[in-house]
From TrEMBL:
Family matches, as PANTHER family: LOCUS PUTATIVE PROTEIN 1-RELATED
Membrane-spanning ranges: 7-29, 41-62, 83-104, 110-133, 140-158, 164-186, 207-226, 246-266, 287-309, 321-340, 352-372, 378-399, 411-430, 436-457
Subcellular location field: Membrane
Membrane-topology annotation of the record: Multi-pass membrane protein
Protein name: Flippase
Organism listed in the record: Loigolactobacillus zhaoyuanensis
InterPro entries registered for this protein in UniProt: Polysacc_synth (IPR002797), PolySynth_Transporter (IPR052556)
Amino acid sequence: MKVVKNYLYNAGYQIFLLLVPLITTPYIARVIGPTGVGINAYTNSIIQYFVLFGSIGINMYGNREVAFYRDDPQKLAKAFWEIELLRFSAIIVAEAAFFIYLSWTNQYHTYLLMQSLLITAAAFDISWFFMGLEDFQTTVVRNVIVKIISVILIFTFVKSAQDLAIYILIISGSQVVGNLTLWPFLRRHLVKVSWRTFNLVRHLRPALVLFIPQIATQIYLVLNKTMLGNITGVTAAGFFDNSDKIIKMVLAVVTATGTVMLPRVAHTFAKGDTAQVRRYLYSSFDFVTAASVPMTLGLAAIAPKFPVWFFGAKFAATNTLIMLEAPAILVIAWSNVLGMQYLMPTNRNRDFTISVTIGAVVNLILNIPLIMNFGAAGAAVSTVLSETSVTIYQLYIVRDELSVRHLFADLWKYLLAGGAMFAVVFWLNVTQPFNTMWLLIEVGVGVLIYAVIIVLLRAQIIKQVRQLIGR
């Protein structure tokens, strides 16, 4: 039940994160326009490289280490302080590297300085500790409060395109404040330990092992926006950023299982119960497939008219981008289960690293010709193909440990239900005037069609739902 409770907390928070942009993104898109959105996306993509460097794989590594040691208070406290001090040291180096870069570049100085608060915020991010303890309530409640305050500040102070710097400052500043608010809760979990016994270096190598896949992952998360800004211009980066936000908002609800299951699987694996690890994986894979298929096809179905209604007429170009990138929801959901819920918790770091490195290389190779010839549309296609390459490799390396046929046993049922849903919703979208009422009708019709068909087909997800209700 704890897994279910944590998923509900995390999924609830992800839905909240979905609702916040539904409120702020249309407002920001209209107030600061495609160029402003593009500048924010471009400068943020640059800052993320320094945040990545300063984090050196701590989030994933720390989460797993806390899950390993949470039954031993002394080892837990010692590991926390060693890992956090290691991160502080890396962030100082990252901050220095950023100011060297700032002295070298000759554009967007003010915006980059505002964005650089995210580097500082990373130093105080200890959410990995609470996630390792499976204490999702603490992080969720804190994040909700901070997000609500940031939304109020945005509507209060961001009134025109000239307020772009203020908008960036609110977003990055709220991240700093939000991370700091977690620190008082440490007293409930940590005991006193001797500083003289600390050994930061012992964590460096295993953290760096996880840092390598994070570098690769970051490449195909933000490189698209960096390259679009440099090759095509910041406006194209703005179009892609907004379409990518929609994809990621939908995806966040599905991948909430990864955040919840990583510490649970790591703890189960540490106890030697590999059979239970596999059971967790099969259930998670079926769940994310059942959830991501309708999200993928449903989003593609409403894409023709949704962007203009949501972002404004200036962002009409994002309708094609959303349709092109929507398949990424499904393949990322699969790789999230295989990578974050199996390879990572079971110490298959090398295999995980190779998989995301393949994705980064594919993304880099495809980005140049696709962006040069097709702009933002090329970036969307490159994203889908690179994410698909990650999933294919992960399926290949687990083929002897897991039954691939078992993983995809009910995929045809979900695709059949999703296909029928897509046909009806797409027809409604292109033939009816689009407004808030019709959006709700389309979503409602889509959910009803999908649910009825998977019930008739007796998909595995129905059994999982019944078991949860029975508990």
